[in-house]
Amino acid sequence: QVQLVESGGGSVQAGGSLRLSCAASTSTYSSTCMGWFRQAPGKERERVASIYTGVGTTFYSDSVKGRFTISQDNAKKTLYLQMNSLKPEDTGMYYCAAGRFCGDGSGISYWGQGTQVTVSS
Length: 121
Fold this sequence. Notes:
Layout: E1 4-7, E2 10-13, E3 18-24, H1 26-29, E4 33-39, E5 46-52, E6 57-60, E7 68-73, E8 78-83, E9 92-99, E10 108-111, E11 115-120
Parallel strand pairs: 2-11
Antiparallel strand pairs: 1-3, 3-8, 4-5, 4-9, 5-6, 7-8, 9-10, 9-11
Protein backbone atom coordinates (compact mmCIF):
# COMPACT_ATOMS: atom_id res chain seq x y z
CA GLN A 1 0.00 0.00 0.00
CA VAL A 2 1.44 3.30 -1.14
CA GLN A 3 1.60 5.78 1.71
CA LEU A 4 3.15 8.92 0.20
CA VAL A 5 3.14 9.99 -3.45
CA GLU A 6 5.14 13.01 -4.55
CA SER A 7 4.68 15.07 -7.68
CA GLY A 8 5.73 18.43 -9.07
CA GLY A 9 9.44 18.02 -9.64
CA GLY A 10 11.09 19.06 -12.86
CA SER A 11 13.76 21.19 -14.46
CA VAL A 12 13.87 24.95 -14.12
CA GLN A 13 16.35 27.73 -14.55
CA ALA A 14 17.86 29.52 -11.59
CA GLY A 15 15.44 32.01 -10.15
CA GLY A 16 12.44 29.93 -11.11
CA SER A 17 9.81 28.26 -8.95
CA LEU A 18 8.36 24.81 -8.44
CA ARG A 19 5.73 23.41 -6.13
CA LEU A 20 6.04 19.89 -4.85
CA SER A 21 3.01 17.97 -3.66
CA CYS A 22 2.79 14.90 -1.48
CA ALA A 23 -0.48 13.02 -1.30
CA ALA A 24 -0.72 10.90 1.82
CA SER A 25 -2.86 8.03 2.96
CA THR A 26 -5.12 8.73 5.92
CA SER A 27 -2.96 6.84 8.40
CA THR A 28 0.24 8.46 7.16
CA TYR A 29 -1.20 11.96 7.25
CA SER A 30 -1.90 11.49 10.94
CA SER A 31 1.83 11.31 11.61
CA THR A 32 3.18 13.80 14.09
CA CYS A 33 5.70 15.28 11.71
CA MET A 34 5.76 15.54 7.95
CA GLY A 35 8.51 17.02 5.93
CA TRP A 36 10.66 17.23 2.85
CA PHE A 37 14.18 15.88 2.61
CA ARG A 38 16.54 16.11 -0.31
CA GLN A 39 19.63 14.31 -1.44
CA ALA A 40 22.06 15.51 -4.07
CA PRO A 41 24.58 13.19 -5.73
CA GLY A 42 27.52 12.62 -3.45
CA LYS A 43 25.93 14.43 -0.54
CA GLU A 44 24.14 13.32 2.57
CA ARG A 45 20.40 13.53 2.86
CA GLU A 46 19.25 16.73 4.52
CA ARG A 47 16.00 17.92 5.95
CA VAL A 48 14.77 20.88 3.93
CA ALA A 49 11.53 21.70 5.68
CA SER A 50 9.11 20.06 8.07
CA ILE A 51 5.92 20.71 9.94
CA TYR A 52 4.51 19.29 13.15
CA THR A 53 1.02 18.66 11.90
CA GLY A 54 -0.86 19.08 15.16
CA VAL A 55 0.48 22.51 16.05
CA GLY A 56 1.75 23.80 12.72
CA THR A 57 5.29 24.41 13.90
CA THR A 58 7.61 24.60 10.92
CA PHE A 59 11.31 24.13 10.36
CA TYR A 60 13.44 25.27 7.45
CA SER A 61 17.08 24.61 6.80
CA ASP A 62 19.22 27.71 6.61
CA SER A 63 19.87 27.10 2.95
CA VAL A 64 16.19 27.46 1.99
CA LYS A 65 14.87 29.81 4.64
CA GLY A 66 13.02 32.70 3.04
CA ARG A 67 12.71 30.91 -0.30
CA PHE A 68 10.75 27.73 0.46
CA THR A 69 7.40 27.38 2.19
CA ILE A 70 5.93 24.18 3.57
CA SER A 71 2.17 23.90 3.94
CA GLN A 72 -0.56 21.33 4.28
CA ASP A 73 -4.12 20.88 3.09
CA ASN A 74 -5.88 18.73 5.63
CA ALA A 75 -8.97 18.20 3.48
CA LYS A 76 -6.83 16.78 0.68
CA LYS A 77 -4.32 15.10 3.02
CA THR A 78 -1.59 16.72 1.00
CA LEU A 79 1.70 18.31 1.93
CA TYR A 80 3.25 20.99 -0.25
CA LEU A 81 6.61 22.61 -0.70
CA GLN A 82 6.60 25.89 -2.58
CA MET A 83 10.11 26.59 -3.83
CA ASN A 84 10.93 30.06 -5.09
CA SER A 85 14.16 31.70 -6.20
CA LEU A 86 15.61 28.31 -6.96
CA LYS A 87 19.37 27.92 -7.12
CA PRO A 88 21.52 25.26 -8.82
CA GLU A 89 22.47 23.98 -5.36
CA ASP A 90 18.80 23.09 -4.78
CA THR A 91 19.18 20.32 -7.32
CA GLY A 92 18.50 16.88 -5.94
CA MET A 93 15.96 14.18 -5.28
CA TYR A 94 13.26 15.43 -2.97
CA TYR A 95 11.49 13.01 -0.67
CA CYS A 96 8.29 13.45 1.25
CA ALA A 97 8.46 11.88 4.70
CA ALA A 98 6.27 11.27 7.73
CA GLY A 99 6.89 9.97 11.20
CA ARG A 100 6.92 10.63 14.91
CA PHE A 101 9.58 13.27 14.52
CA CYS A 102 11.62 14.57 11.61
CA GLY A 103 15.09 15.66 12.71
CA ASP A 104 17.76 13.92 10.69
CA GLY A 105 15.32 11.38 9.34
CA SER A 106 15.82 8.74 12.02
CA GLY A 107 12.26 9.26 13.28
CA ILE A 108 10.69 8.87 9.86
CA SER A 109 8.46 5.84 9.29
CA TYR A 110 7.29 6.55 5.76
CA TRP A 111 9.16 7.78 2.71
CA GLY A 112 7.85 8.70 -0.70
CA GLN A 113 9.49 7.49 -3.87
CA GLY A 114 11.11 10.85 -4.52
CA THR A 115 10.76 13.51 -7.20
CA GLN A 116 13.73 15.02 -9.04
CA VAL A 117 14.38 18.75 -9.01
CA THR A 118 17.01 20.11 -11.36
CA VAL A 119 17.97 23.77 -11.39
CA SER A 120 20.23 25.01 -14.16
CA SER A 121 22.30 28.16 -14.04
